[in-house]
Amino acid sequence: MDGQNRTEQQPGADDEGTDPLVGPMRKLGLREGQIVVEYGDDEDVEPGVRPATETVVGSPVEPDGYDGVVDVVLLWWRDGEGDLADELMDTLTTLEEGGCVVLLTPGAGREDRVPAADVQDACTTCSMIASGAVNLGGWIGQRLVGRK
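Above: the chain's sequence. Below: its structure in token form.
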């Protein structure tokens, strides 16, 4: 990818040895050199996810206004925000072939937790498959990929 309108790399304070979310982000399929864009970021998100992502990929996470093609979409989603399938379809237009969506939903005990059935229904509608979940603090991350 050519990195058009790409944010300049800014070194972070977190490194692989001290950031407990680096391992889980790698389990979700993130790799060095990928371009990642983030949607749904708000004040309630897990604050360590972005720095861990930047550590793994080696560059800043792009904001939702980024207009290039990406390898990974980080999608923060809460129950009651609308139609998850519609949002997933919108994100697919920005993904490089073979890319993935990392769906981030609130963990147990939160009123805005997304029911697993809703995620499965949205994946079915969008011809995607959800992998196993990883704990990311107060949020759950799932890797969604297109069916082959």
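Strands lie at 36-39, 70-76, 95-106, 128-136, 139-146.
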